[in-house]
Amino acid sequence: MNKPYDLLTLGEVLLRLSPPTGERLTSGDMFQKYVGGAELNVASGVGLLGLRTGIITKLPQNALGIYARNTMRSYNVYDAFVSYDDDADARLGIYYYESGAYPKKPHVVYDRKYTSINKISLSDFTDDMYTAARCFHTSGITLALGPRCRETATEMIKQFKKQGTLISFDVNFRGNLWNSAQAKACIEEILPYVDIFFCSETTARMTFLKEGSLQEIMKSFTQEYPISIVASTQRIVHSPKSHTFGSILYHAGQDTYFEEEPYRSIDIVDRIGSGDAYISGILYGLLTDPDNYSRTLQFGNAVSAIKNTISGDMQATSLPEIEAIIHDHKNMGFQSEMNR
Amino acid sequence: MNKPYDLLTLGEVLLRLSPPTGERLTSGDMFQKYVGGAELNVASGVGLLGLRTGIITKLPQNALGIYARNTMRSYNVYDAFVSYDDDADARLGIYYYESGAYPKKPHVVYDRKYTSINKISLSDFTDDMYTAARCFHTSGITLALGPRCRETATEMIKQFKKQGTLISFDVNFRGNLWNSAQAKACIEEILPYVDIFFCSETTARMTFLKEGSLQEIMKSFTQEYPISIVASTQRIVHSPKSHTFGSILYHAGQDTYFEEEPYRSIDIVDRIGSGDAYISGILYGLLTDPDNYSRTLQFGNAVSAIKNTISGDMQATSLPEIEAIIHDHKNMGFQSEMNR
Amino acid sequence: MNKPYDLLTLGEVLLRLSPPTGERLTSGDMFQKYVGGAELNVASGVGLLGLRTGIITKLPQNALGIYARNTMRSYNVYDAFVSYDDDADARLGIYYYESGAYPKKPHVVYDRKYTSINKISLSDFTDDMYTAARCFHTSGITLALGPRCRETATEMIKQFKKQGTLISFDVNFRGNLWNSAQAKACIEEILPYVDIFFCSETTARMTFLKEGSLQEIMKSFTQEYPISIVASTQRIVHSPKSHTFGSILYHAGQDTYFEEEPYRSIDIVDRIGSGDAYISGILYGLLTDPDNYSRTLQFGNAVSAIKNTISGDMQATSLPEIEAIIHDHKNMGFQSEMNR
Amino acid sequence: MNKPYDLLTLGEVLLRLSPPTGERLTSGDMFQKYVGGAELNVASGVGLLGLRTGIITKLPQNALGIYARNTMRSYNVYDAFVSYDDDADARLGIYYYESGAYPKKPHVVYDRKYTSINKISLSDFTDDMYTAARCFHTSGITLALGPRCRETATEMIKQFKKQGTLISFDVNFRGNLWNSAQAKACIEEILPYVDIFFCSETTARMTFLKEGSLQEIMKSFTQEYPISIVASTQRIVHSPKSHTFGSILYHAGQDTYFEEEPYRSIDIVDRIGSGDAYISGILYGLLTDPDNYSRTLQFGNAVSAIKNTISGDMQATSLPEIEAIIHDHKNMGFQSEMNR
Amino acid sequence: MNKPYDLLTLGEVLLRLSPPTGERLTSGDMFQKYVGGAELNVASGVGLLGLRTGIITKLPQNALGIYARNTMRSYNVYDAFVSYDDDADARLGIYYYESGAYPKKPHVVYDRKYTSINKISLSDFTDDMYTAARCFHTSGITLALGPRCRETATEMIKQFKKQGTLISFDVNFRGNLWNSAQAKACIEEILPYVDIFFCSETTARMTFLKEGSLQEIMKSFTQEYPISIVASTQRIVHSPKSHTFGSILYHAGQDTYFEEEPYRSIDIVDRIGSGDAYISGILYGLLTDPDNYSRTLQFGNAVSAIKNTISGDMQATSLPEIEAIIHDHKNMGFQSEMNR
Amino acid sequence: MNKPYDLLTLGEVLLRLSPPTGERLTSGDMFQKYVGGAELNVASGVGLLGLRTGIITKLPQNALGIYARNTMRSYNVYDAFVSYDDDADARLGIYYYESGAYPKKPHVVYDRKYTSINKISLSDFTDDMYTAARCFHTSGITLALGPRCRETATEMIKQFKKQGTLISFDVNFRGNLWNSAQAKACIEEILPYVDIFFCSETTARMTFLKEGSLQEIMKSFTQEYPISIVASTQRIVHSPKSHTFGSILYHAGQDTYFEEEPYRSIDIVDRIGSGDAYISGILYGLLTDPDNYSRTLQFGNAVSAIKNTISGDMQATSLPEIEAIIHDHKNMGFQSEMNR
């Protein structure tokens, strides 16, 4: 089964506007512009490592939409499944992001209501899309954007599943889009279709009202639903400029937990998208060496760790760089200070 | 009658995002950020020349609203009559602007729907506002934004008028906000309250369906309504980088037209706001030397001409600079190449 | 007693020129420009938290003076008491600042001689100024600038005191402006009028020749003079990029010392003005909840801590942000990693 | 015949490094980085107007090669036929470009020897490439780079021709790569395969030693070789910041010359690539409406004219923008000053 | 007579601070920093063309002085005769410069009082300096700075003259430093020592009260004083972005006037220093081919013309570039659009 | 023996291109440009501390060569012994450098083949060069560039040695230029002429196959060759943003090892050139106070430590700053937080 895409993701593409590091949203003459979005970040992360990925989304038919399209392409995400909105009020969602420095926290202002993604529908796409990918991924953000997105996402999950596509889902709970009860109810309808499930410990407890150890919680999802893999990141925020990052991956078939030493004291340059980068590492691992869960976990952790050191929402890394980081992290032999 | 403000204006405040000169909206890493808005530009123009001005508007209660407030203040516009919107979907309107170079035209993408100004109402302000200013100004843009803005603006015009405030109104027709018939119907309800009326020849013909010479058209407005002054700008666009600018001002009481030699081959740096700058020059003239219409016209033309040479929506000039430009324009004696 | 200003401060306004972070004064093509000054920073700090503040100063009547005025306004400091110097040699003081990175120290080059502030005199202002504020603040820097500033400051302190204004004074000893003996003699003439006194432990020992514990020293000032409150900051410089900051506040009436856990390992972005930010937090606390000294101390520490993370001399923060930082610092319940 | 690409081009991809406008190569702290190359510019020009295009080239297998690939993709050029050079001395060619201002001329320094393109060979590509495109384009620069490029290009032209592909060729004579005699000899071997031929009047006279009027010269090529279309640009350089641009297109089958009023006094922002943009407009016209040579000429002229107003080697325009420019150039009815 | 320097100049070195083009001094976050000064610009202009030059000046012994020294060196001016001022109030003079765009004029704010150059004295230098150069140049600015500079300059002129050094002097009248009567009296004491005299027509008439044609005026100086060469520039300011520049050179010995077609419609990028660049071209001509006055005039005009197209006070050109410009200006044969 | 230069170094000068901190080589619009090169960095380091230094190299005769020359001069390196390559393929070597942040390592891409330095020969220089300096320095990089450089360097070492010049040599092993065996063979031919030898512990073990303690290894070099001084740096890389740096210096005559407390937790801004800066500190020490090896070691460590905190390859420090750092490092008395 030779499908043209390894991965398709569904989600909103946003313009990110950030003041230069150390400056505030409330002053200054300049914004750095980026393109991001949880599911775009995942697609790009997998694409930059060498697989063929695309995004399913709806963009405004204007200069901002073209900017988003061009940028996605430069990050190795194909745009064959981008629908365009040519209404007069078509708009690209925006978020403003200011980085932190202890004790100042990173700060986000969202301006993502009434955006073109909210007009997406199944009829924007042809049916051959559902047979075009080995894996489909979306997140709770897409479900939370509004009823139109929720219906479309739900239906797409079912259609892709029907075609034998691996379904990957990240809870990605955002309290400013919906509340825990809404999220729980909606996601529980999705879970019967999900193969790979990403959920943080906090969200599992606060949104899904799970109890017990993290390991018990992870396993419980696979007991309640036909989920194969549950992955959960573990981040310790020492300060906005220093995090420690690791994760646990549980495989239901083997009933095994995979872990490794976390990346300690990561030098944070831009933390945005590092959760999505984790997912991209995991999916890359599963799509290239399906049964090697240790390697999959290592990819997830390494891609997330390095994303934190790179400006922008999308990790701009490459396979050789990730392999070198994994190699050094496993601490095998002489380590040079510099790649040259 | 010692009122605390010489001028209050009512209108939407927008964030302007522009790529560096020569770059496109569809590429690049950076936006220059500005604050503008037709009525803010007028208030600022008058304020920077030395009078006390304020704006009546509604801003989101977030970092972008604070940025707008701080910027307005630095351009000498007081913020005592700014109302804040603390809804979760509060938003500051945006427009994206890319400058032109022949044959590429300047390009604007608006993203100003669903903004906080659309929630403005009379109840946001106390009644002492109506006695606080010598002059009140707004434009057709405010009327066109939506029903809430239209009602509020109409009622404010009446309240200010009742308190003996000079009413200034700029048609400022924007085909992407409403059509000519809508504009005509709405504005004709306002005109009975207007003292100073700004209308371009094109708009007079296409929106108000006027015929005859420009002089006849200008006069006709004062015959149909109790308008004292009608001003009309005349711009010739040689290329996006070179304009010629002049204007005609008609005073009904004296039944006289005022004109001067236009500013020829202006070096355009940023054309946005030069129409608003013209209004600010006219209002400054009328408020400081009410019966000297020649001087008033000279201020209007000079402030507009120099605005074209300055980045951003608001003219960042000063009284001595404008006086020097008027002096040179009238060509009196030796002219230095440089101010030092 | 409804005074139009909560706080007026007296002091010099300076232009700060800094190379981009990591660059040196001795090379490069660019300076970042800022406006600062010990007393302006205090006024702005209080103003941005929501009170009405103004500065008493003298600026050159040129483009640099206008730049300083515009910037002050954007930082919520009113300019009604700014006097202008239109002499041919009018000048705005400058300081050049280069940030540090261990073992390179931050480096300052001053160019603040012969500046317009040195021409300030009582006759620049009308007498209603002295009844316009609830609190007046100045620092030892103003006294040290020269005889004209010293006389003017001394007389203003007396005039404000006479009108029942709270007098706040920061020693702010600068060895490059005067020596310890000069400072001691001059300040001891001021202290009989001071209500709120800011003095670091080092200065207390080296300039005022105090001995004993810091607590004893603080108390001694209130025994020798009718001072109500003495505040003293405690900064540990781990490296130019990491400080720990706390303070002690002594209230003479209650004979009580207030302290809290310091902010540890602050990520220093720009350390300049963090002492002034501390004062602004203390004054904000005293002016909004006069008898709550614990809260006042928390405000002082939090505003100073966050200032260190923001580029420029003036803290560009807001009341909600400071309250959130205080809340997190007191460690009450779940803490999000990010404000969104 | 449903081929996956409308156009494939063969040529070197270069890194362009330019000081900011007004700065010199010999000073300053910064280079703006761009990607360009005559044939890449043609592919991108056609791709941005909406057709599917790709480039055949060889890039170094390092960060610079990845940068070039990502950038090409963002300019709508596919990279399926990019071969990678992983030798230790693999290098991306560079040229340094400084813009002009009368009397300073634009200045180029080339550093494009020993680059990876010089290792390109037929064996880098599979045979299905030759059936993948409706049109193939290359230029004399590729022939001039060295023997390996010359052989590869010559053979590819033959292979593509054999598969019924339209062959487009631009002389693009560069005196620093070869001399006129070499160029003439080499290109005359290619011409029997060429369908669309681009040659400036100067080159026709100086390199091909043609005589007579430009019209006679153009026709003569079609008499000597089975060329269908000859196009020749006509540029008048008033100053480095103002050009006039037009062209003549000759169609041999109809024995007709097509011309239109040139674009006069174009505001030059970046002149590089405007010749390639012309070709992209012509090819777009031919590929979308093959028999409409007037429209084809209009596209060529308009795309070239607007390219001059855009920074970078590749025109970043779109079909609607070009259509609007053509419309205005033909001067049909009311023209707005701005697109909004 | 093999002297180590071809040219030494005496004058103040200044820091220039400019907002980015199109921005104002009164707003924005950034200054571009440059080093300039009339006599430094002359030295650098001659040095960059290939002769050995140095400057005689006094700099503050701080980071700004080091910045000035490093920059001078990078512009090929030796610093062996730089004296350093290590007083606490040592300062580098500053001027703020904002460029113009019609009708906005370029604007300069000077802050050059109390600078270190005002402490310069003969005792800062050893006597071998006077034998070290073939030519010595200074200008009226140095004389106007203050009594200390005036005495030092006057005495240096005499000392250099005594050693057979060619004395070059530029009036460079600045109304903000002294008045015409002062300038006339002071300069007339210098003229007996001057060999090469630069004076504009306006200054000749307004300061020296000359009458008659420009030719008569130029000649009159050589009749009253033992001056060999008088040069006078002729600039027409069409707008701040377009000048025409030419000059007349009179040689007393041959009683001949040298002129050439002026450079018309120069694209002005930065006009500052173009008068000094003219002098550097003239001095370069005289020092390399003393009797070829036509060539000397061509160098003067070409160096000045190109300076206008380059950011900063010092022309960053080279001998080949100037020779190419002269060649093109004389319009000899085919002219390429670009240097490559 | 009054030689005009204290130090001459021989080596390649490179252009360094770096994305802004936090950005990647593979994206972004901008490169920061620097000039560097191991031996240039050493010369500049010594020159900026106050001695007279020059570089022996070959640069392309184009704008890039002029840029390199101008920059070297601004860093106090004389260019009297720079030879120029005016071949059509003359090129300046380039390296691209991206900084690191844990776990992302700094990354270098070299593009330094076929550069002008490879054409250097003895005949480019006159024999008086060999008597012009007190000390001559080069490194293993120069030897490794190619046979032409190797021969020239070897011969120059002998010529300088013959004239009584101190010979300094840094192994500076680069595995991408040659292998350990090649390096060992070549360098062992040089060592009989070397007085001051710089070699890291790693290189001593891996390239020279030394065994035993570092002290034993250092001593062994002086036993096998007539080397007076061996210096070896000791760097601990905590993360790309935090290093600890110290060194050991062995003097054979005194048979003594010199060491001091290392600089711990240096805030790394730009690590490139810090090894060369170390050498410059050592050579400065030896050339100014030859027998004071403790002071020499302190200079080496301090100059290297501060280099890490400065952008660019060359340390832009000064003697007073280094003395202050040494003073603080020795922890003598009160330490201010800031230099002002």
Structural features, described:
The structure is a homohexamer of 340-residue chains. Chain A has 340 residues and is α/β, with parallel strands linked by helices. The first copy, chain A, is 33% helix and 26% strand. Chain A has helices at 38-48, 63-74, 140-144, 147-162, 180-190, 201-206, 214-224, 274-288, 293-307, 319-329; strands at 5-10, 14-18, 30-36, 53-60, 77-78, 82-85, 93-98, 107-111, 133-139, 166-170, 196-198, 229-239, 242-251, 256-258, 263-267. In chain A, the strands form two sheets. In chain A, strands 1, 4, 5, 6, 9, 10, 11, 12, 13, 14 and 15 form an eleven-stranded mixed β-sheet that branches. In chain A, strand 4 (53-60), helix 2 (63-74) and strand 5 (77-78) form a beta-alpha-beta unit. Strand 3 (30-36) of chain D pairs antiparallel with strand 3 (30-36) of chain F.
In short:
Six copies of one chain form a homohexamer. Helix content of chain A is 33%, strand content 26%. By secondary structure, chain A is α/β, with parallel strands linked by helices.
Distance between the termini of chain A: 40 Å
In the CATH hierarchy, what is the class of chain A? Alpha Beta
Kindly report the name of the CATH homologous superfamily of chain A.
Answer: Ribokinase
Question: Strand-residue fraction of chain A?
Answer: 25-35%
Q: Main sheet of chain A?
A: 11 strands, mixed
Total discrete domains of chain A: 1
Helical element count of chain A? 10
